[in-house]
Amino acid sequence: MPILPAMANGTPTTTMPKPTVLPAVVVTATRSAQQPFDLPLSIDAVDLQRVQADRVSINPSESLREVPGVLARDRQNAAQDEQVSIRGFGARTTFGVRGVRLYVDGIPATMPDGQGQLSNFSLGAADRIEVLRGPFSALYGNSSGGVIQLFTADGTDPPEWRMMFGAGRYAGQRVELGTRGIAGNLDYNLDLSRLSGDGFRRHSRSERDNGNARLRFTLGDGSRITVVANSVLLPHAQDPKGLTHQEYLADPRQAAPSALLYDTRKSVRQNQAGLIVEHDDDHGGQWRALAYYGERTVQQFLSIPPSAQTSPLSAGGVVDLDGDYGGTDLRRRWDGQLGGRPFELVVGSSWDQQNQQRRGYENFVGETLGVIGALRRNERNVVWDFDQYAQASWRLSPRWSLSGGVRRNSVHFGVDDRYITAGNPDDSGHRVYAATTPVAGLLFRAGRDWHLYASWGRGFETPTFNELGYRSDGGSGLNLGLQAARTDNLELGSKWRWAGDNSVELAWFQADTRNELAVDSNTDGRTTYRNRGRARRRGVETELQLSLAPRWQAHVAYTWLDARFSQPLDGSAGTRIAGVPRSALDASLRWGASHGWHAQLQLSAIGAVVADDANTARAPGYALVDASVGYVIDDAGMQIAPFLRLDNLFDRRYIGSVIVNESTGRYFEPGPGRAVYVGCRLTFR
């Protein structure tokens, strides 16, 4: 969908009834600035600077819902993060994000094993989110069923201070303060935010503090140095856990009884920093080097009963993780000609590493539950990757363009067991996963405003350390027998635009996976995994952007997706992959301009979802209507933008997300009822 870039001097338009819409520019697909209309793939850029959107800016799902192929669900559970999947990849995860690569300003928010978190996405400081889907995602390496990248906004001239205040039912209270500007050769953006609230369900209170800073220094020789720092603090996030269907019908706001009994909760602290050095040469090419380092601690209290911890092989009921991570990425881009036609080549190499101390404790002391007890697990987990990649695009003729690339992936897992007893043997070990993942795409310009394309690629997905963490047979040590999943990806598409910013895009895709990784069992927060043979994800995406009148705009994003096991190991061929709806629709109608009154109606409709691989449990589909209205007062020195949101306008009862293969039948996480949110954004220039 089109994004609205900032004006060159950073001052928004205030005299025109409708801002000028310029073509979107994205960098995630090719690692250089390109218009998505000219690429043989599916990619969207969601503008986060548009004040008329009246976003609460708490979670990325508020914006990702507008992108076809993406299912982003707010679980109403800060202890488990949001559920995000792209074309069915990542739907099985029980917490965090996996199967999808995450980045912030080019720095990975996904660890080398494929596990990622959205909690450090600082939305208030961001300019846009880019979402890459389909075969070309494989160029980002392990576990790249899709790529989501957030970009911090540039500084403005004149400099400005920004404040945001908001409060609402279930969403809690949010306060944000930021400043951005340009001072000589320094471009800066600093942002702090705090969120706190009780949540929709009982035992779901949480607090979250985010900080984000980006400093860019422009040197006189075509070089730039960018410093990025990011922090997130989640000091206490309660976990209400899932409900059975009977519990959901009785009271969707209740917490699972075991959540109250064991006071299930999670705390997270993460700090990271990165350095990016770029140099443009005299021939249009570029050198780019990135280095980053971070530290992350996690402590989580589960509801595993003491009776289940009597085995000497038990890892206890408290998970305690403490470690650091870091990496580098070096790439070279050449712009020139091949055979007298425009040609671009990018070659690079990346290295990432995570060192993690994993401890497990009993969650009881005597008769007291939900506290740290005796040590039951102590090991050092190390995972690192060393990848090489190349990608190129070649304008074969005025009508034809060829794009392609290849990545060599090598992911190394190692375990050093430091908890060895008579009944718990040494579980140290290591495992290496490797793959070569090629991609190719062909674009045909059927007309100036109509492009057709085809793309193909192979993907690669290793288990994460969390998926290796427990063996299905109940034995000690990591489940090092898990295989990596391999996927063949195919996409055919059409892109058509007319009369300014009107456009329609259509894509058909199919992804065939071998050694599909799936949840084997999920009990009291402890999940085991296994390979489930072959799976197929096949579907259609369409996106429509319409300017109906000078002040009216409509947007529609629709996905139909059939995701099922085609040749599993247990004979249950044909069953649907859990957590993936067959259809998803997001449609919005917007009225207004860059100042004065504006309003929006938004419809979200999600099809039914099966909650287990046997397809015996099911969450019904639902449709929700949200509405918002706001007013923008804008002059040379200040902008005031109050707004009012009504989410779930008709107070529908629905299941917002599911916990895949939850062994006790508590699959269901209810979504909130009707909610009112009031906010105001202030900008001082």
Describe the fold and architecture.
With 685 residues, the chain is mainly beta. The chain has a single domain (36-684), classed as TonB-dependent receptor, beta-barrel domain (Maltoporin, Chain A), CATH 2.40.170. The protein contains four helices and 39 strands. It has a 22-stranded antiparallel barrel. A five-stranded mixed sheet has the order 1-8-9-5-6, with no helix packed on it. Strand 17 (318-338) and strand 18 (341-361) form a beta hairpin. The radius of gyration is 24 Å and the shape is globular. Mean pLDDT is 91; it is low at 1-21.
Instruction: State the helicity in percent bands.
Output: under 10%
Uncertain stretches of 5 or more adjacent residues: 1-21
What is the radius of gyration computed over CA atoms, rounded to a whole number of angstroms? 24 Å
- Total number of helical segments? 4
User: Structural class of the secondary elements?
Assistant: mainly beta
Strand content: over 45%
Largest sheet: 22 strands, antiparallel, barrel
Assigned CATH class:
Mainly Beta
Count of separate structural domains? 1
Give the oligomer, counting copies of the same chain as homo and different chains as hetero.
single chain
The CATH topology is given as: Maltoporin, Chain A
What distance lies between the first and last C-alpha atoms, to the nearest angstrom?
Answer: 29 Å
Mean pLDDT: 91
Mass-distribution shape: globular
- List how many beta strands DSSP finds: 39
Instruction: Give me the CATH superfamily.
Output: TonB-dependent receptor, beta-barrel domain
Which CATH architecture?
Answer: Beta Barrel
